[in-house]
């Protein structure tokens, strides 16, 4: 059965996980690009298709799916994807593994929540500090600046580094190639991709976190895969083509 798939992508977002996954599955898909507002929030067009206005959102045969982990789970459960993995035409871990489920939950539940908190405090703290919001006097602005600096640097940074170190030690100390724990990438790998990509090549590249050789090697293995290359290229092309129509 051929499926009708539309990926709703927001620039600089977790939907990079799905570009990689969809290319690995060889399923054809359409892309609708949504651009963030100057406040960095999702635009009304994404709210129109997604209950919380979040990306990724995927339309699969008329059904609206949200939450990347759930979307990945649904795609990996499609009969043709299971069959492709069984007959060897797809080189991905489709059957759930203990490691794969763990890292899939870890990616959002322990890693991204901290990154997200830090990003929100950093951006909103700056807004209060420069007087764009809050209406504070100089002493108040200074206090907000000090508190947000302590939260992001003193409180959250060590916790975020701890999540990076745990992922590093899984790959190095346990000698694993993939977060699936097998010789193929699976749901844990697709889910971990957003954070690691942002640390090594994206918005967190210069944020001063220590990313070890295990994660760097994992990232190189991902990027060496034709499907990951194709997915990232498609993401770029879709954004460029949508931008040219604005
Ligand atoms: N847990 C969700 C998180 C989705 C999420 O927060 N997406 C961000 C982009 S990375 C978003 O849509 N932000 C827009 C906004 O907050 O307005 C998932 O894994 O899909």
Helix content: 55-70%
What is the CATH class name of the largest domain? Mainly Alpha
* Largest sheet report: 4 strands, mixed
State the CATH topology of the largest domain.
Glutathione S-transferase Yfyf (Class Pi), Chain A, domain 2
The helix tally amounts to 9
User: How big is the Rg?
Assistant: 19 Å
- What is the total tally of β strands? 4
Question: What is the terminal separation in angstroms?
Answer: 35 Å
Shape: globular
Q: What is the ordering of alpha helices and beta strands?
A: EHEHEEHHHHHHH
Domain GST C-terminal: 84-246
GO molecular function, one term: transferase activity
Family: Belongs to the GST superfamily.
Keywords: Transferase
Explain this structure:
The structure is a single chain. This protein has 246 residues and is of the alpha+beta class. The chain contains nine helices and four strands; from the N terminus they run βαβαββααααααα. The chain has helices at residues 16-25, 44-49, 68-76, 79-87, 98-129, 138-172, 187-200, 213-223, 226-244, and strands spanning 5-10, 30-34, 57-60, 63-66. Strands 2-1-3-4 form a four-stranded mixed beta sheet. A hairpin with a 2-residue loop joins strand 3 (57-60) and strand 4. The radius of gyration is 19 Å and the shape is globular. The chain starts with a strand and ends with a helix. The model has no long low-confidence stretch (mean pLDDT 96). Residues 10, 13-14, 41-42, 53-56, 67-68, 108 line the site of glutathione.
